[in-house]
Please model this.
Amino acid sequence: MEKIYKETSINYVFYDNGSKVNLIFLHGWGQNIEMMMPIAKPFINKYNVLVIDLPGFGLSSEPKEAWTLYDYAEMVNSFVKELKMDNPILIGHSFGGKISICYALKYKVKKLVLLASPYDKKISKPTLKMKLFKILKKTPFASIAKKHMGSTDYRNASDMMRNVLVKHVNTDLKEEVKNIKCPTLLIWGTKDEAVDYEDAVTLEKLIPDCGLVTYDGCTHYAYLERLNQTISVLESFIGSGK
Model:
């Protein structure tokens, strides 16, 4: 499906089950919908599920100006309003996780799931995409990596998306995350070379109502490397009464 927002064409998939539970999945930098579908599919027949190609990636066009993370969060909120997905549960990986943090700081969120999400300035670098690609090539998801991550890193990104990346990298949310009020779940691999596991330990302490699930020996793509475990953890977290 396609939505036009601020002159930007946004590709998305939406599964409407008339549920009171709304799930929104946001992918990482240089990725697209397909990278989130392995953890979204188990829920598409039970809850209302939205998966977005973030502007500048996948089949979505680039924004007309260099968006901030809060601009991306505002875009997500436009979907929430249009699709009546009030009080959603946001599930974001890396860049998508940082957008989810910004969303939770500004709008009402039922729960938040952060998959190896950066939150301060020192974590991400312009060469982050290259490192992530090298990591993922060593996993069973190498074919997905080659198909969906091969051409949008910093070196060959457009000037517009380079500017977006700079804004992303320079956005420090370390103090702001203390104001997140919803229950938050972190899923992190101890061998994450993009966002250090120690940052996960720190983030768990910074967010008031937060828990950390550790995948020993896994990388920045821990959520895919232990897919069945991730689905089980998400089912438990989403379905809990809290």
Q: What stands out?
A: The beta strands are 2-5, 8-15, 22-26, 48-52, 89-93, 111-115, 184-189, 210-215.
